[in-house]
């Protein structure tokens, strides 16, 4: 067994502040950032404390790198540490590829939402009260906010994986999937009255909220969470695909492209593999595939707004 596979490396590092020839100045500080051998003004820098790169974190990280280097030299595949693949940091960022791709997804959603808002209020006709004719506008605005929140916490979580950021990332992702499923049902079944929308949304909101509370307060069950997320994702993809064909929507090809692309992207979440060169794993590739799909998705939403507005105006006339 390799020496670095034991706890000896971490224990020795915490005592000496060094792994091999690498030594860490902040190993002179305790886990709460207070100096071990100096006054209060010798506290650890704020940016390091915020990112929680304390002595133990750095010891674990560099011991992991040394162990993986030895494993690679002996022809062995990478292994997970505390349930996570071994990634290489860049400027203190834990998963740089996923951070960059999550940020791009965030930007794509913001761009899509902004162009959707401009279309509704500046290009399409408005009612006398200056409100859009498109009766699903409010639901899509909420969808945009939920999506932006999910991708924001994805950026934060992949920058630094701690318990707090993990729970916010997982909770936001579940909330996004739950709301997307509700929206798929409401739009595909043409649910327009507020009372009917509440009746449809209430049980799904209750389920989503209960699942989030379970993950945060009882057990962070990754396997169960994966099943719940896959179920909600598959359900809404099937609903959109069937509705697009049955309703003969003029932009159904865009919707089908998103459904097929989303299905293939989901496989990357299910089929896990270690990060290539310590940077790009299956999850990062999933983030990459959702960038063009997000652009097409918002293009469909805008087409639907134009299509629905045109039909409503014909009925008014």
Automatic annotation (TrEMBL):
It is found in: Endomembrane system; Golgi apparatus membrane. Keywords: Golgi apparatus, GPI-anchor biosynthesis, Membrane, Signal, Transmembrane, Transmembrane helix. GO terms for biological process: GPI anchor biosynthetic process. The chain crosses the membrane at residues 99-122, 134-156, 168-186, 198-216, 222-243, 255-271, 283-301. InterPro entries: Per1-like. It comes from the Eukaryota. Belongs to the PGAP3 family. This is Post-GPI attachment to proteins factor 3. It comes from Escallonia rubra.
């Amino acid at each position: 067994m390799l020496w670095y596979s034991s706890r000896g490396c971490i224990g020795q590092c915490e005592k000496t502040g060094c792994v091999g020839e690498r030594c860490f100045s902040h190993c002179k500080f305790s886990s709460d950032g207070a100096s071990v051998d100096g006054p209060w003004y010798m506290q650890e820098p704020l940016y390091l404390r915020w990112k929680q790169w304390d002595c133990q974190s750095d010891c674990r990280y560099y011991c992991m790198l040394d162990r993986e280097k030895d494993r690679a030299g002996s022809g062995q595949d990478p292994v997970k540490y505390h349930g996570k693949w071994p990634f290489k940091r860049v400027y203190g960022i834990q998963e740089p590829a996923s951070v960059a791709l999550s940020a791009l997804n965030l930007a794509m959603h913001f761009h899509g939402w902004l162009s959707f808002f401009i279309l509704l209020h500046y290009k399409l006709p408005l009612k006398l009260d200056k409100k859009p004719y498109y009766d699903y506008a409010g639901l899509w605005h909420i969808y945009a906010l939920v999506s932006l929140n999910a991708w924001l916490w994805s950026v934060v979580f992949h920058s630094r994986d701690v318990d707090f950021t993990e729970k916010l990332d997982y909770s936001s992702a579940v909330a996004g999937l739950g709301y997307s499923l509700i929206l798929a049902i409401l739009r595909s079944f043409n649910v327009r009255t507020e009372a009917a929308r509440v009746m449809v949304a209430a049980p799904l909101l209750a389920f989503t909220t209960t699942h989030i509370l379970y993950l945060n307060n009882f057990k962070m069950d990754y396997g169960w969470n994966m099943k719940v997320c896959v179920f909600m994702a598959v359900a809404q993809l099937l609903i959109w695909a069937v509705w697009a064909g049955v309703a003969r929507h003029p932009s159904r090809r865009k919707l089908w492209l998103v459904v097929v692309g989303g299905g293939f992207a989901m496989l990357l979440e299910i089929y896990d593999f270690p990060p290539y060169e310590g940077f790009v794993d299956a999850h990062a590739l999933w983030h990459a595939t959702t960038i063009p799909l997000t652009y097409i998705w918002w293009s469909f939403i805008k087409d639907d707004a134009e299509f629905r507005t045109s039909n409503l105006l014909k009925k008014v006339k």
